[in-house]
Amino acid sequence: MPDEQSYIPVYYLSYLMITLSNSSNNKLDDLDIKILSYLIEDGRQSFITIGKEIGVTSVTVKNRLNNMQADGTVKEISAKVNPKSLGYHICTFLNITLHSNKYIPKVVRMLEELEGVTQVFVLAGIVQIKAILYTKNMDDFSLIFAKISQIDEIKEVHSETVLNDSMMGKFIVS
Helices (DSSP H) in the chain: which residue ranges? Predict the structure, then answer.
């Protein structure tokens, strides 16, 4: 994760997940923003429907989205999956403090390889890394938490278990 590119967090959208990259040098114009806004509202909308709504052809919509993907503005488009439907009932935010910032790349790679870790963020502040961990139950959580706690480069790990996830996340393009 913290190589040449850094990433803006994943935003969960109605039926679509878009990962926006901040590595893009191109600015979004009003048409790109309109297209993204429609996809955020309902990711199942066809290019034809979006084109009609914003007054351009479906080919224009498709080409604009392809260009945003090609230049790295839109990093990923995929379906939003409810982790609970896959048996992952425990969502935990892990706040990780390291002995030194020089360990960030190594620890990020280690975390990304652990089952259940869905996102890893590098932060500026006292906590250097925040990770999101999904587990099936508290026993699984305890095992993975113990593994993470044993990583030598980690000074402290604090966890916050999500009690209610009624709003998975919103992103407003403006």
Answer: 30-41, 47-54, 58-70, 104-112, 138-149
Give pTM, 2 decimals: 0.66
* CATH 3.30.70.920 domain range(s) in the chain: 83-161
Higher pLDDT, 46 or 168: 46
For residue range 126-148, what is the model confidence (pLDDT) as tens digits?
899 999 999 999 999 999 999 99
Distance of CA 129 to the CA centre of its chain: 14
Considering the four listed CATH numbers 3.90.79.10, 3.20.20.70, 3.30.70.920, 3.20.20.60, the one that applies to the domain covering 83-161 is: 3.30.70.920
Rounded to whole angstroms, the maximal C-alpha distance in the chain is 57
